[in-house]
Task: structure prediction
Amino acid sequence: MSAEPKPLEARAVGQPLTRVDGLRKVTGTATYVREFQAPGRLHAVLMTSAVAKGRITKFDAGAAERLPGVRAVFSHLNGFEWKADPKPGQDGGIRIEERLPLSDAVISYGGQIVGLVVAETLEVAREAAGLVRIAYTSETPTLVAADAPDTATKPAKNNGQPLQFSKGDGEAARADRNLRQFEGTYTTPTETHHPMECSATTAWWVKADRLVVYDTTQFVKGVQNILALAFGLPRENVRVICPYVGGAFGCKGPVWPHTLLAAAAAQRLGRPVSLELSRAQMASCTGHRSPTVQRVAFSAKTDGQLQAIRHLTESLRSPVGTFVEACGFGGAKVLYQAPAIEFGHTLHTVNVAPPSFMRAPGEAPGTFAMECAIDELAVQLGQDPITLRLANDPLQHPTEDKPFSTKNLSRCYRRGAERFGWSSRTPEPGSMTQGRLLRGLGVATATYPANRWNATARLELRADGTLRVQCAAHDLGTGAYTVLTQIAADALGLAPAQVQVELGCSDHPFGPVAGGSNTTATVGSAIVRAAEALVAKFAALAVRDERSPLSGRKPEEVTLVAPLRIGVTGPPGASENLVVILLRHGLSNLAADGVQERSSGGQHAFQSFGAHFCEVLIDPAAPRVQVRRVLSVIDGGRIVNPRTARSQILGGVVMGLGMALMEETIYDPATGLPVTRNLADYHVPVNADVPEIEVLFEGEPDLAFNPVGARGLGEIGTTGIAAAVANAVYHASGRRVRELPLTLDKLL
Ligand code: MOS
Result:
């Protein structure tokens, strides 16, 4: 990898710039995938299976095909030939569902795609779908781990990280009668992403071998590569466009079957095809968070020093796709120090749609279990839960042999405790009241790793003094357009208004999946590198131009010395404006690329931490949990934009409150179909559920991580919240609920 660039000099960075795409969004000129037109496009509707395990024995599309306006009904009987079964991995795109769609009569889960109706209008396509007669042979599906005990596997790795880990002698510690022993089992339910914008694809073969796809995706380059492989095309013959995303939370990271089907149907019919999933189909066709069962054990000295930690997770996979909900990564791997630490993960195969990554995959449920367990241990030891945490807070990564680059969890707790009024808390459960309501205060640690993946950013300085930035990355609504504008502005000393960031198109240089909270660190670093490369190009032009005051200087002496100015420092100083150089050379622009490479290694561990504080009120007569207020103090390195950063944490906290109190995907045990498949049955927090949430940031720029010093904030807000709520509920009521969501029935 090339040398690290110099730390960015922060001018625009750190300012609460309003969203650069805000006006486009509120005026409706930001074009979302479903709004792109394609001439003569057809409309497609997916048909999904009514059983969860079995075979299709009859697929009679006769009546549907005879309906005027219907152009085709596709099933396994007349399905598609694929040039390849792409499983490229990492930067080549992500496929979680391994089976190619409509490839045979086998049904592996409820809601599996079994047919596709294509018609001139959406209404005709819907009506035709209702006329298709499908029959199945069906067996009782297995839906929970207990149904499928023989399927247990212990996968070795997730994204290259070991899933099974053990150090020290935990067994000895757990047998030691001089130590305090704690063991608890925690469960979390299936959760579904349900972004506002349902997944959709418009596929358009503009030539026999050229495909344009508007796709709701977090990863245009991944979609491009997978479609190119599936259709046997050079990658550049596939264009994937997705400038705006109406929420994703992970469900738009992989390429799911509907995208392949839309492209294949468009090819077969010679017309563009638009396909949008219904809200109900979002419950089975674009992944979900696996339910988990987590067993946590602690052995501690009576003063609270942890001697052994064990964190064992069971989660589910589908017969047609593997994903591990790596709870240990957000638990025993990283949270507390002890001589003996063990974590492990077991998968069971059941007849459910493929689990996949959802905001803070692993860390969200993992922090629920660990951060409830440490709270229970604090109660057992008679210690304050913050004191116990800080007594075991490592500055050295507890399972990797290196220090955290920067870590300020103790400052997060101290500042939060002061601000939240923690010292007024009386530890006895039920000891705080407000009228007839029980009042409880709880805390929990938030954590998420800092990822830095591959990206190339292209910077183009134009003769009008504006800068264009291109990368095939994404703004999922997170603020990426805005924070990358700020970083690019500072990299060349421009005002943000002179910078135009273009994302979400596969024509741009490589951008990573908008996942793992990596975009700011990855693309921001690529931008800083591109700015250095651009300065070098300008320097090369100037030093060999006798009309330039920099003529004859060594190019390596020349740096950016002031906004838009390169020069040499020290006597005799000389400098020149970049636009003047362009104009004198008759250039309309000059461009350079900057490459950031994936790196997880190095001498530091990069991980963000934070402290959540939560207050709940519970009416003993009808014990629905009301969250009264939340305070989150987060150390995410440099905060590039306090406004969008706060918004990321707010959104994460709200999602965590949903996880804590209401979100749960329920499957009908008879059919295996998800029954909570609309937003009336699948509850997410609405405004009335959301209390006062305050967000504070702690810490310093993480300059060992990247020249911007930022670690990413997309997911950490969601971690730890469910535990903070559960801990507050215990404090209010004395009831320890180890099973999410924390619904009223569990407190009766
Ligand atoms: Mo996010 S679940 O890493 O797309």
In short: The first helix runs from residue 22 to 26. Residues 218, 250, 253, 357-359, 361, 515-516 surround dioxothiomolybdenum(VI) ion (CB under 6 Å).
